[in-house]
Queue: 4 jobs
Job 1
Amino acid sequence: MDVAVEVFALLANPVRVKMILAIRDIEVSANHLADIVDLPIDQTSHELDRLESPGIVSRQRRESGDFYLSTGVHAGALAEAAIFHAEHQQQERIRAGSPTSNSRPN
């Protein structure tokens, strides 16, 4: 269960979610990924290291730089499910005439 909690904690960051979604099907260089998530390369590399440590992404070192790929479908599927759930909840609130904030009633 500790690993699951670690994965959810890593997915609680919008930049890391963007990264995972960007590399779920294709290998992407760290520099290109920095452009995708609009971060400096050093910060992008730091976030990628955090994702690599528990095995969410893998790194291939090449002469042209480091390339990253999601190690499986699970993290990407979790990210997609969370996004789908959030969008569904927002649509339900709009349909019900409720505010679109994420606050919950007491």
Job 2
Amino acid sequence: GSTAGESDITNDRGGRTTFADAGTTAGTSDITNERGGRTSFSSGSTADHSTIANQTGGRTTFAGTGTTAGSSHISNQTGGSTAFYWGSDAGSSHISNADGGGTTFNDNSSASLASISNKSGGNTTFNDWSSAGAAKISNTLGGSTAFNDRSNAGDAKISNIAGSTAFNDRSSAGSATIGNTLGGSTAFNDRSNAGDAKISNIAGSTAFNDRSSAGSATIGNTLGGSTAFNDRSNAGDAKISNTLGGSTAFNDWSNAGGATITNVALGSTQFSDRSDAGHATINNGALGGTSFGDHSSAGRATITNTTLGSTTFNDRSSADRATIDNNGGSTSFKDDSSAGRATITNENRGGTTFSGDSSAGRADITNGNRGSTTFNGNSTAGRAHITNETRGSTTFNNGTDAGWARIDNEGGSTTFNNGSSAKHALIANTDDGSTTFNGGSTADHAFIYNADGGGTTFQSNSTSQLATAGQAFIYNGDDGVTTFTGTGATAGNAFIVNADPGLTIFNNGANAGDALVFNTDGGQTKFSDTGTSAASSHIVNVAGGSTSFDTQSTAGDSTITNVYG
């Protein structure tokens, strides 16, 4: 119960002052420890309102439950230090560490309500399950704080301005509020966890390494601020926002977990090095974007791109089994990337584009009202299922093909332009849906079904750029129509069936090539206009099927067989 009152105490060259037992207090003393000098508080004693300076190797220690720094002012400089042990706490003290001075919390000790400043090489370290309590910690100009050995930041408020904080050895940020500004940084290492922390990176950064996790943290990156996940780390269930040039990067097999990520106003998220979006929810708003590269994957994420928001897949990356909604926004696949088995919806001027040897894989793609899918530059529809609803569309451009895809035009449309091919696709045009082959395109070996007002058109006015049915099988039934129009339009070697009552029309100089045309049960083939010809086709009219030529068209060298009515 003794007190040092208002003493001036100097411990130098191994000199020592000890405060022991409950009620023992340093009062308002001025204490200086230097050159190996030391002050010790233990067994419930308190530094009270004292002022303590530790310098050039001087040291102050607090040990034992109930032992506290009180409301003291402690400064550690040029190798001076303060250490808390075995349940002691920093109380509401003010601690300053500079020029190599430091404070350590060990063995379940706590920073409690202290205000701690680390600058110019000053540092604070929490070890062995210790806690920052509700302290206010400032790291500036090279100052730093480290949490080790399952220690916890508690409810602390930590500011890093050109300073840093590190969480190591399964330590946790608890419910802390952490601000990284102007080059300030926070790092989570060795399976450490951000807990429920609130982290703000304003021209500062946060990094998760060595299988660490963002937990349930709320992280904001802005004005060039950034967050990086490395070395199989994961975003947990964090809420991450990237704005005004802020960014988040997933590298080295890292995973977005179940995080919610929002990118707006030049904010961005990048996945690379086989990283995975997990089950994350990713929202890309105006001028916000997400990109995948280097064999990375969208996993089973839910990705929404609204107006001017975008997602890009590069370098053999995959959309995997993600759900992607382009509601006014866009998704692009490039450089051998794949849509995998993703579910993709395009609407309200939203669109998906494939280019650079990319593939739609086995994706399920729906183009709704004013939604579109476009294939460019050697890309392919793979084995995707593409549905074009009313005012929805799919376009194949030079060097692209529909692969083995299934394309349903349910009131919507598909267009093949110069240099494109339907390959082996199954194409169904119903409910006024349509497919158009322009000059230089081919239906190849596709199966095309037209019914319920749906139709297919082959059109070209240039014999050097044929729109040809190739060796396709085309079925027109129940008011389905196929039209060949222009001197460059030809049925090639196709097999065409018109029934119940389907119709094929040749006009404006088109020709039936070497096609086999079968008309039955009310199905018809019609030739009209100058230069239109049945060419070398084989036409069979059976059981109510018919073929008609107007006065300007010709049967050419065709073979026409009429049987059973």
Job 3
Amino acid sequence: MGVYEELCDAYWPEPSLDRPQLWNGVIRHAVQRVSPFHIIQHSGWDDPLGGLMMGLRESGEKTLKPRSPMSAALEDIPDMNAITMPWNDLYTRMLHKLVVNASINPLGALLECKNGRLTYNNPAGVRMLRQICKEAYAVLQHDLPPSESANTLADIVLKTVEITTTNTCSMLQDCQARLPTEIDYINGYLCRLAKERNLDAPTNQFIVDLVHTKEKLYMASK
């Protein structure tokens, strides 16, 4: 999260400029990189809710316009399982994915385990996931539907762990490959948003610092 804002600030700071249509999307495709040009796809192509959900932030609409050439091209790829959504619906999905990633990815990377080990016979792991969700909800509650709560976010995270129990999260894959992680666009995004809203996010900030420390150590030994 936050890439859209970075692009607009860097290249089109004024909406009146010739800003192109910038599509936002969220994916359900879980992919493990085994080696260069060799991946294992765990999920997404058969998800009834869509493997790639996309939409236009600029529209801000609750209904859909006719398909654009780009969205039509993606939707016509069967394995992509792509759908176009109204922005309000898509934004909720994006926030759910943000919380899922902020909970599972850094813990999987720091503990160097597959997703399922975070919760299997592991009450401390469940407490950590719930604490991240509690803090994330405090930051995002006014962006989420009224029916949402810290508990509903935790339920989504725990269900995702159950579905992806044998998966290796992308952040752990980055650490194993000694690559920079996406932590600044996940937990780091929550921390920046919290600061903008005069809120504290100590758990997420601690996680960001831990991941950056881990990055520093393995990058120095490359």
Job 4
Amino acid sequence: MQAKQYKERILKLQDALEMQKLKNTSQLGRIRTLEDQLDKVQIALEEEREEKETILKNRQTNRLLMELREERVQRLQDLEEIYAKDKRLEALAAEMVC
């Protein structure tokens, strides 16, 4: 009688072992799937970070370009004033010569 019980017990343990192997395989598959998803998310985050850095750099570049534009406009206005003063001085000099 005990031999039969031992055999049944061994069979149950073997079945339990097989079930655990299947569960472990299934869990391993899920873990791999989750790792793949994590990799994809990390890649997407890196791409988004790079995109935001590019946008920030573009904003900084645009700001610098606007500052340069304002400086050029100011220099052009200064040159126009200098040119107008030179013309007035030339006109005054011409009047004095006459």
